[in-house]
Design goal:
Layout lengths: L11 E4 L2 E3 L2 E4 L2 E4 L13 H15 L4 E10 L6 E3 L3 E4 L3 H13 L5 E6 L9 E2 L5 E2 L4 E7 L13 E7 L1
Antiparallel strand pairs: 1-4, 2-3, 4-8, 5-6, 5-7, 5-8, 9-10, 11-12
Length: 167
């Protein structure tokens, strides 16, 4: 992955969104030390915990929705760090917050938790279903081109190459 150093203590590293004209090259990202994340305390009422998470989120300027991934230490070869597969989190959902807290709590050797903005967020989805609700859209393209090849096909036609792109 990117080999970013661990985040320690109360540190929060904020990486701004990278854009070129209207193209987003990188999402705004927050890297947070695992111990700086609010965890439920013994005997704390769930409603009190969710209010505390909400205040923490607002204090950091985090959006209502984010992609969460957990970063782990450098590999044995010391070449790069690894990151868990990102999952979607809505800070408006107590169930999602609870699931994220459990997931992060189980990652004992984590060096940072990465929260990335959902870009675009659901309010900017352009596709709507029959009931008018917004839906995400994925575009897949298949590109084909001919290029010279040193190896001719048995029928003498040039070799065709394909690439699939997804957005």
């Amino acid at each position: 992955m990117d080999g970013s150093p661990p985040v320690t203590g109360e540190d929060v590293e904020v990486v701004p969104r990278r854009v070129h004209d209207r193209l987003v090259l990188g999402r705004r990202t927050w890297r947070i030390a695992p111990e700086a994340l609010p965890q439920p305390t013994k005997g704390e009422q769930p409603s009190a915990y969710f209010r505390r998470v909400h205040r923490w989120r607002i204090g950091l300027g985090l959006p209502d929705e984010a992609f969460v991934s957990v970063e782990f230490p450098f590999t044995a070869a010391g070449v790069s760090s690894s990151r868990s597969k990102p999952f979607w989190l809505s800070f408006q959902s107590p169930h999602a917050i609870w699931a994220a807290a459990n997931h992060i709590g189980k990652a004992k050797d984590a060096t940072a938790v990465r929260l990335a903005e959902t870009c675009p967020d659901r309010s900017a989805y352009w596709l709507r279903d029959d009931s008018g609700s917004r839906r995400a859209a994925e575009h897949v393209s298949l590109l084909r081109w001919q290029r010279p090849s040193r190896h001719a096909r048995p029928n003498g036609e040039p070799e065709t190459h394909s690439a699939e792109a997804s957005s």
